[in-house]
Amino acid sequence: MADPTRGLLDTSVVVDHDVLDTAALPDESAISAITLAELSAGPHATDDEDERARRQDRLQWVAATWDPIPFDAESARAYARIFAATRAAGRSARPRLADLLIAATATANGLRLYTRNPSDFAGLADIVTVVAV
Fold first, then answer.
1. N vs C: which end of the chain shows fewer Cβ within 10 Å?
2. Helix (H) or strand (E) segment spanning residue 8
3. How does pLDDT run across 2-18, given as a tens digit for each residue?
4. Where does residue 24 rank: exposed (0-12), middle (13-18), buried (19+ CB within 10 A)?
């Protein structure tokens, strides 16, 4: 069972971190390398200069706040189980690739997954503990 005082923050939680009630978050939090990748791409995904600057600021804050957990061989093995569960639930894994890789990282590291989008992880309750924030 995942330790309720420790958790992996989904990208959605990191993006909204400044407006969330911190009481809803774990005492010890981590992010995955996948989240860092998503945030690194963020400034390149908009043509709005102000939004690009906000995304760059967030990326710098995240990089200074957390050392991301890598997606390693154990995460890859966990991803196989998550992929199978997603398919068994009648859902396609392809459009949710980043989300499922983040869930695999949480699973491999025995962490609860904190997210603003719990529906992205439907069908995975037997594999990863998802906490809606």
1. N
2. strand 6-9
3. 777 899 999 999 999 99
4. exposed
